[in-house]
Amino acid sequence: MTALRITGGPHASASIEINGTDVSRAVRGLTLTMKVGRLPTVVLEVPVLQGLSAEAGEVDVRIPDETRELLLKLGWTAPEEP
């Protein structure tokens, strides 16, 4: 189970922590759904692409450091560097 903590309000900057790690800078927004008899569900809106550049028909995909760290904490495995 993942521990989530949200502090702040609608007119102030919110702080979002997952398992004690502040991920606020990597999250653009979130949707929290709570239903009786079920664990709450959180969907994080995370901007993934920082920029794209084309070179010789290839694409260079860059992920912001904050987003990369968040994805790794959530179990993502980064692809091997070429």
Q: What do these coordinates show?
A:
By secondary structure, the chain is mainly beta. The chain has one helix at residues 65-73; strands spanning 4-7, 15-18, 21-22, 29-33, 41-45, 51-55, 58-62. A hairpin with a 7-residue loop joins strand 1 and strand 2. The termini are far apart. The model has no long low-confidence stretch (mean pLDDT 77).
Major β-sheet annotation: 3 strands, antiparallel
**SSE sequence, one letter per element:** EEEEEEEH
Strand proportion: 35-45%
Distance between the termini: 34 Å
For the largest sheet, list the strands in their spatial order: 1-2-3
This entry's quaternary arrangement is single chain
What is the SS-derived class?
mainly beta
Give the total of beta strands: 7
Average pLDDT confidence is 77
Share of helical residues? 10-25%
Low-confidence stretches: none
